[in-house]
Amino acid sequence: MSGRVGDLSPKQAETLAKFRENVQDVLPALPNPDDYFLLRWLRARNFDLQKAEAMIRKLGRKIDTIVMIFDCEGLGLKHFWKPLVEVYQEFFALLEENYPETLKVLLIVKATKLFPVGYNLMKPFLSEDTRRKITVLGNNWKEGLLKFISPEELPAHFGGTLTDPDGNPKCLTKINYGGEIPKSMYVRDQVKTQYEHSVQISRGSSHQVEYEILFPGCVLRWQFSSDGADIGFGVFLKTKMGERQRAGDMTEVLTSQRYNAHMVPEDGSLTCSEAGVYVLRFDNTYSFVHTKKVSFTVEVLLPDEGMQKYDKELTPV
Asked: Are 121 and 162 in contact (CB under 8 A)?
């Protein structure tokens, strides 16, 4: 049984009733102490009555606002995978719609050079008030955290004094991991990707798409699929403006190779280190027989202008 309302085993239902009886004295101070609320505490401790009660007595007080730390260590291009970014966007949209004015401050630490781009993707889903609560801490981020959080409440990993009983500075035992996802919630039929462009590439030929990048730090992101067979793909930087160039006359930025995009859609991204015209080249020159249909979407992700002031303190990727 999942341990949720309407899906309780007899033993879980008995534990819930006992739990409610044991914490009667603290219920008035809790927000909406219904079965949905109480089961959250029980599931967090695997229906261990004693642990759940200790937890709710310690933490089950009314909380008006929270301080959130967003650790950007390791933030890279892999995190700009389009389906993943869409999950981030949905998450922030849910927070805005269902938990208004809950965030006191969001502290960004160890931000990489890609953070302004990531922030620009999330910004449309954040209210103006929430945006004002975001603070990017620079090189002395540990000192900055202590201005918002008491040392005894902050893990030693982030500059505080709190540790796990075994001395772990990251306080991993404080993390309440999610349980097993019920199979009834599995997504079986994924929505097919809607591509913006589609082109037929004749045998022995190629197709080039140009994107002008006005300043360094922008990210090119692409998704594509092919019908029936593989397709070559690479990214180049033009050396002459105003004319089509052969691949050998341009600077190769991303090595051209063949992708089985007819089996699994391909996606990727590239941080543009310099301004110029970038060429995404779909290559079918190696095929002497087959014309290939390629469907693709390409986006240019811009860094947020307001975050550029932190540029000198952002960590290189």
From this structure: no
Structure confidence by residue, pLDDT tens digits, 76-105? 777 777 777 888 888 878 877 777 677 889
Cβ neighbours for 21, distance < 8 A, ≥ 6 positions apart: none
Return phi, psi of residue 91, to 5°. -60, -50
Q: d(Cα 220, Cα 211) in Å, to the nearest integer?
A: 9
Whole-structure pTM value: 0.57
The span from the CA of 154 to the CA of 138, in Å, is: 18
Strands in 18-95 per DSSP E: 66-71
Q: Which residue's structure tokens are 């990707």?
A: 193
- Find, among 95, 85, 97, the residue nearest to 122 by Cα: 85
Sheet holding 251-259, edge to edge: 206-213, 276-283, 231-237, 251-259
